[in-house]
Fold this protein.
Amino acid sequence: MNPNLFSRRRMLQTASCGFGYFALSALCQSARAAATYGPKLSDRPSPFRARAKRIIFLCMSGGPAQMDTFDFKPQVGKKPHPGSVVKFYRHGESGLAISELMPETAKHADKLCLLNGMHADTGNHAQSFLQLHTGERLRPRPSMGSWVSYGLGTENQDLPGFISLNTSKPQVYASQFLPPVFQGTPIGINGEDMSQATIANIASDHLPASVKRRQLDLVQAMNFDHQSLRPEDPGLEAVIQSMELGFRMQMTAPGLLDISDEPASVLEAYRVGKQRTEGTCKQSDFGRQCLLARRLVEAGVRFIELNHGSWDQHKNHRRDLTANCEATDAPIAALLSDLEQRGLLEDTLVVWGGEFGRPGLTPGNGKDETGHNANGFTFWLAGGGVKGGHVHGATDETGARAVDGKVHFRDLHATMLHLLGLPPNDLTYRYAGRAHRLTGPEGGRVASEIFA
Amino acid sequence: MVAQPGRTRDAAGRNAPRGNVAGIGLEKLSYRGRRFPGFVKRFSFAVLVSLSGIYACATSAADETEARAFFEKKIRPVLVENCFECHAEGAKKIGGKLRLDTAEGLRKGGESGTPMVPGNPEESLLVQSLRWEFDLEMPPEKPLSPAVIQDFVTWIRMGAQDPRESTPAVSPPPDANTIAELAKTHWSFQPVANPEAPIVDDENWPRDPLDRFVLAGMEKAELAPTSDAPPGVLLRRLFFDLTGLPPTASQVADFAEEYERDGQEAVARWVDDLLASPQFGERWARHWLDVARYGESNGNDGLSRNPSFPHAWRYRDYVIDAFNRDVPYDRFLIEQVAGDLLPAENDAQRDRQLVATGFLALGAKPAKAMNNNFEMDVVDDQINVVGAGIMGLSVACARCHDHKHDPIPTRDYYALAGIFKSTETMWGVAANEALTAPATDLHVLKAAAKVPPPKGWKETVLVIESNTGKPKPPPKPKWEPGTPLAMGVRDKKETADCQINLKGESKQLGDKVPRGFLSACSLPGDAIKVNPKASGRRELAEWLTRPEHPLTARVMVNRIWLHLFGQAIVGTPDDFGVYGDRPTHPELLDHLATRFVAEGWSMKRLIRTIVLSRVYQLDSAADLRMVEADPGNVWLARHLRRRLEAESLRDSMLAASGQLDLAPAQGSLIRHRDILVNLAGNLHEPSRHRSVYLCMLRNSPPPSLSAFDLPDATTVLGKRSSTVLPTQSLYLINSPFAVEQSLAFAGDLLKTDPAREQDRARAEAAVRRALGREPQSGEAERGLAMIRAIEPELATKFSDVEECRLHAWAAFCQGLMATNEFRYVD
């Protein structure tokens, strides 16, 4: 064993906050990465200029129909062709065209940076959803939130760095081979009542807090005795520290998740508890999610994912799309306003989008059914150092494929990492004999055209 | 430089037959280089002070020949294996602009300067970087072994002769020759040897031949074993390793006495008892269930649907029973791969063999909807569980392309795929959700009891119409309620070879490949041919369990070793391929594999042999110098301190609280429920049975286990993580399970003579019960002090005096169960 490595380990283990000794094995296998991006949650400065400090990802699962939300496709020529089937209006100084189904979000048009040239590899939900989250569609890889906390840690030592609200399957918030401290913490599983959702075992009133503290003191006293006879094992120190962190979390997190201290006007603006279910539009209490996102951002969480679904309106396209828009429009608008008012928007990157888009309906032909389209769709970004009221990229006349300013998921990942001041293609972790990165073997291109 | 652990890739390079390695031509080299994209390395060559080199060194012709031979034998293979990923043609970005695949590149160097000063190794940048001196550490992931570095030193001292052409030949595509070459050279494809037990300096130390292999390693690394574990530590380890449960304090005391009197004979007696107990199978079945990616629901299909597998539990019971009856491992595998094709003497045997094939049907599937590849996704899961689970090979990569690093061409994948495509996989009705998976038949069992649902049983979870989200009436089941059914496989009526799916897409078809096995593992006198009229699973099972198969026995003895030591001989138990770890003790691995096969593939016998060895019985305590000399414990001079897995932790809490019900649980929570688990909310119910019997729903694991690295059961998992997370602390501090157990524990304690005068004895009893040892001085007092301090605080919450007292004691009991001592084996 290399002496440098050992001393580095020593240093990590004694330095700070209890995460110093996470996953020795991971550390050993990736000594080089660990030196830069150690398996610690402690806050780390970005190696490069950071335009954003944190990310809120509004995950619209199921594939939102871009042509009836943000990518206006009017009819051209004489022959009817697929395009937008709802009205679009221009908004703000920038005159961004936004669908009538998003009236509240439209008020923030000058904050939005539309990426109309998005494309991905597959129109298969499960695979594309994984690719959106991890960069890889076929096998389990660390989620982008895990990569971000691996790169930057968290500003708050009492909370995880990556939280996924109303989440679906663990694969989308898993750290996989990254040290487990970077795993996303789920709050609320898809379909559950979000108002009850919390971190597992975060609270229990079986004992008053003061008694729990005395109880923990006894446990730690016994742990110190136990450890003193086993001085050769630094892993025991990590367990002792994690008991303290758990204890602190139970003090911090429930208050954060309890929104009863918010004024009624805020609850109303976010539409907390206002559910809309219709066909594929499932209840998600998206308003509560947006409000929680703001509270978590304020508390120093690095990456927060929100989920609403499903936008997979195969049949009843118009009805279900309207419902999905209604369920999310006002909450998102409230979140953008709130972030702006609190001065958080400038260093918070808000990302909106789903695993792919949909082909357009042809007006007047009576059909109301859409499928999947991974060849061209829309994401939007706001805040965090990107241009507002800006359109980047375009699809062809029928919206079938991205033709200009194309951004693949790996490019989106690269852009997000870059905005956080992380080197997108050099943020790597060694596993199974080679270095891995979020942007995959191809690497991602940073869409620097959109930087403010 | 401290002794170097042997897990580096080069260790095997040196074990591989030299002739083959040295004989690799330039094509091979450039090919290898091309295949390791070097995109992601970050090098710091550039930051280093460049060293100017004198490049002249006269040598005689004879010396030159010798030096060249030395290069071919010792240097080139190491460069190929360790450096070409980033420093050769084909690397996405040449690290530090340094190329090591040409003589010129190695001579000129890159951004950081000239790599070598021929004749002067100490001044050579290359040697400094291999030694991981200063900032320059190559290869970046792990230093090479000192012996290999010494080879470089020798070679540079001899003048650094490099006979290679200045530019390599054009990279050829991977072809049969290169694959065959890899198969010939990679360690795990070589026949299992039966090495002689080495001679060791300390002849008195080894107890079993296996100890000699370990001691030889230690002696070579200039380490000495730590002391033998004290009896209390040893018994606790044996109990957890063999049964997953802790011993009681009185068992510890009895054992200590017998151990003092009879030594190893006493150990053997206790070991035999533990191996014969039904708890043995419950413990070891769980290890195999991790490999078999066992789950009782499909898991999220990608469309947020998670249908239950109401009959999967029969496979769980099959595995428990197989371990308890010590079914030979070869037979165990044959039953799981081809049990439906085996003759049976009676209905019970027939049932058992059919249930065993659940192994192939339990996988987590992606949704059928919009998925042209669904059928091949099922096949892929089967290839993966056989490949990684049984052979330790990630065959599944070859679905889309020739394996990037292992000698597994796409043709092999589709040869296996033909076998599984000719097989009908029976997962059941998938909760009547056709978009998730089409309904299939199931095996109907003959001897198993018919267990109808309880009277008045009504399903509360509705069947939902996919598109409208509205409930619909559940279809009438094909079988009468309570019919004993099992998941599994059987041959299709029409069997056929499979066409290659180009880039893994079912719609783009290439050549048809005859059904068969892995070409890299062709066995001597290989004559097993697939019967064209059958799927080929029978032959596959036979091939996998041939005594000469280089992987099957090695992989399993490595798994067993891992569970007994907390660390494996091959650190990647599911990957014995080129990118997997090399064995730390290759000869030991082969010695164990040979014995395993020779002793009739008996898992109990192998486990018994290992736990009776001297090395297993070492203490986990060791002095700091020893730890610093071998921090990863590669040489096994001490026993690794291990944390209890989720199941053992929960079972230990039940044992301490007195709530543990050792009777096997019957069936499963969901045995009568073909439902979408995701619509059901929390299905889990409190249970006092052992954890192995809890309902292992994918994506909805039992809350009393989920905090502690439970596998997600989507893929083969030979080695669980052992994480330390604050959510685990929260589980111990706040979970309903921990609170319930502490109340039961305290209630029990207060039942015996509740007088306050007995409190001291009571506190001592609590320590004994939780930690299986006598309390140390002051320990009981410290606990009592806490209880007395919190009682007044609790009085405001619990006005009833007895209730208040119960909760105060429960707080103490809960604390005991949250200590590190409780949570660790030793």
